[in-house]
Amino acid sequence: MKDEKIDAIFNPKSVALIGASNKEGKMGYVFAKNIIDGYRGKIYMVNPSEEQVFGLKCYPDVRSIPDSIDLAVIVIPAKAVPKVMEELAEKGTKAAVVITAGFSEAGPEGKKLEEEMMVAANKGKIKVVGPNCFGIYNCNIGLNASLGVGTPPQGGDISFVTQSGAYGMAIFAFALDHHMKFAKIMAHGNKAGIEDYEILRYLGEDDETKVICLFLESVNKGREFLEEAKKITPKKPIVATKTGRTAGAARAAASHTAALAGSFTAYEAAFKQSGIIFARNGMDLINIAKGLDWQPLPRGPRVGIITNSGGTGVELADLCEEAGLVVPELSEETQEKIRELIPPYASSRNPVDMTPVWPKFVELYSKIIKILYESSEIDIIIPIILQRAAMMPEVCQAVADTVNQCLASDRKKPTYVCWVSVRSAQGNMDILQKNRVPCYDWPERTARAVGAIYGYVEFLKRRAISFEGR
Amino acid sequence: MKDEKIDAIFNPKSVALIGASNKEGKMGYVFAKNIIDGYRGKIYMVNPSEEQVFGLKCYPDVRSIPDSIDLAVIVIPAKAVPKVMEELAEKGTKAAVVITAGFSEAGPEGKKLEEEMMVAANKGKIKVVGPNCFGIYNCNIGLNASLGVGTPPQGGDISFVTQSGAYGMAIFAFALDHHMKFAKIMAHGNKAGIEDYEILRYLGEDDETKVICLFLESVNKGREFLEEAKKITPKKPIVATKTGRTAGAARAAASHTAALAGSFTAYEAAFKQSGIIFARNGMDLINIAKGLDWQPLPRGPRVGIITNSGGTGVELADLCEEAGLVVPELSEETQEKIRELIPPYASSRNPVDMTPVWPKFVELYSKIIKILYESSEIDIIIPIILQRAAMMPEVCQAVADTVNQCLASDRKKPTYVCWVSVRSAQGNMDILQKNRVPCYDWPERTARAVGAIYGYVEFLKRRAISFEGR
């Protein structure tokens, strides 16, 4: 059964904004705007010096709100937070997102404030996100209770938990650039009132979350966290990266390589055992999530590479093998089918190198993808779309259409694009990614993302869990 | 003394285009257009079926050209090439770039043609680039004898040799997007008439080449190549990457991981011993070259990180340490200077985390860069410019100005920017890179490029070679 307090964070019937403001530039203004923008439940503005905020009645304090509150969003100065938390507790508030900074991250005085705040919250059994955090989203109901600008599009499958607000939001912005869609997002800062395993359990049970993404600096209650992960990973993938240690120790950690490396390795090993996909950094994290979300899981490690540049094909083949994948020789039969299409000086071997015959790109990418899709020799297809090919929107459209036609058949097989191009051609990536064909920047990022995805399949295989049809 | 035949490739007094054409879409058209565009020496068009090409007199054959030829550029079909090469030999032509494909890469018949061509070339002591290649540039004299569109801007220091035409040109296009400038470029395809060590020696002696960049699939005469490299690396850096093996063996190589890995490691070790900077892939290659070209060499491994996102700072610190750099604690004295500037909840430790106080970004980036520049505790400065900071052109301008003010002082110290942002903000990178402040995409690529650059400094230190003032 879902944790109803955590559910109140993401699916509140009512939201109270403590510190709402009409003054542009104020936190209370940003949050009022963000919440009103897409959220369709009841909204209560709270601020003793305002009558109305954004046209909504503004209450002088929490007590005056005539109704119960599911979620309180707090943006008032740290010193005032413990008292408000008491009032929220008295009202039976279910959850609170405390954006305000100046708590335990700011020294002993702040630590004391954080403790006082948590005493009040615990007394009222309020689930606290934060303090010192970026906030939360439930994109699928249009709820933006975060510092982020704009409410992301609905219809997302990826839930994303990030301890680092700014870096997390950079990853998130990058993901939006790539047309990824999210379900729930939480940037939980100091993590004073919520354990990592609790949020993990909630997302594990959440039907709208198909892929769980974690950007971690520290892990609270590691044993419980890993136990929870073990229950989830057979059902849905968890991708996680881990940088430094706690925010405070990060600088020290960085100057002690041995300790850091040890910790890294320990995390990597523990994660792997629990079936968590370990991402080496934030960029890999989002790339892996994209591939998991948009394409079916590969049934095996055998990669078929299609390229318009021999050199890039060779580099990608090297890097795929390094990432635990296999780039096998194609059978004479399959090569014969390909040879009928390509110029005589091109190569039907794997990588299939069509050479830069741009007038034939649309036809060749489509037909060769289909041949590899239908071949039992290949589990994963990676077309390299480089330079001239990337500059041709019709090539991108043809690849997107072909991949989705293939996926509509019974036999599921993933395609990931290795994208190598200049800035001016980036717009053509949109054609592919709006059609859920993931594009990765240059061979290394491609190989690493695909290798990590196949690592998850290997985990499922070891546990004898079927991954067909995913 | 410079090899005068190779010099004729890059600095010809006259160029003959064999196969010149007025028909759009033909190779002979592309090359005629490219050569006329920027080259100021004598140009002779050759084609028996044209009277004029692009308004220039067209000769029916090589013999009819009334003058001597320094460089012949050949785009006629493979079968006709050996005979033309004989005629060129009779005329005493110094060098030829053979673009035409269909030679040894296309099977036994092509191999025979290549041998015939080389017999003729060797008889006349013609230096041959190619066949089956993309061509050459000397950007500093506006000579584009390649398939590439447009002549790159003059004033470049980087020379780039690539065996893979298409991938090489993708790297090159990426580099132009990043405002890099080149001296000489050669894509030499089958390498029938030129040894790797010869071109290396030439570039080693070329005063216009400050950084040598090599994208290799195979290395001919490895011992001579490494000997040549050993002579050059104390004077100027060589950056090289190595994928697969020969183009033909690449597919097979990829399916034999052990052999491949062995070969890779062997190359890496041999390169390192000769002081060559080993790049793991094409993207790293160009990133390393950019840092070498635009910034002075670091005197030590101590990195000072300035960030507007704690999480990114931690990730970058981790990755820097992994790349052989050090992210040391700052002295109390230096921290005190920084603390006077930043908000109380920010961090003066290393990474210096100014937090997302965007109204103060311009001031803080500038002042903290200066403090670290003047401090004896730090050898390398890496500002992270993330999201909001990246979206502010005034921040990019301030960083560029500050770096160049600092570099104008006596004490040289490099700055490299870790860039984390969305597509729409990429234009602001131009402000930095036009000012020769290198930007790298996300922490991993940054740490790896800077680590590789410092690896070269370590080589110079081991050999007791001064790198001050570079």
Task: Describe this entry's structure for a reader.
The structure is a homodimer of 470-residue chains. Chain A has 470 residues and is of the alpha/beta class. The first copy, chain A, has 3 domains: 133 residues, Rossmann fold (3-Layer(aba) Sandwich); 143 residues, Rossmann fold (3-Layer(aba) Sandwich), CATH 3.40.50; 165 residues, 3-Layer(aba) Sandwich (Rossmann fold), CATH 3.40.50. In chain A, the strands form 3 sheets. Chain A has a 7-stranded mixed sheet, with helices on both faces. The first copy, chain A, has a 7-stranded mixed sheet with strand order 9-8-11-10-12-13-14, with helices on both faces. In chain A, strand 8 and strand 9 form a beta hairpin. In chain A, helix 10 crosses helix 16. The longest helix of chain A is centred in the last third of the chain and has 21 residues. Chains A and B meet through helix 5, helix 8, helix 9, helix 11 and helix 16 of A and helix 5, helix 8, helix 9, helix 11 and helix 16 of B.
Give the terminus-to-terminus CA distance of chain A: 24 Å
Backbone CA Rg of chain A: 25 Å
The mean pLDDT of chain A is 92
The biggest beta sheet of chain A reads: 7 strands, mixed
Q: Unreliable stretches of chain A, pLDDT < 50, 5 or more residues? A: 245-261
The H-level CATH homologous superfamily of the largest domain in chain A, spelled out, is: Succinyl-CoA synthetase domains
Number of helices of chain A: 16
Structural class of chain A: alpha/beta
Oligomerization status of the protein chains: homodimer
Walk across the major sheet of chain A and give the strand order. Answer: 3-4-2-1-5-6-7
Q: Judging from the principal axes of the Cα atoms, what is the shape of chain A?
A: elongated
CATH topology of the largest domain in chain A: Rossmann fold
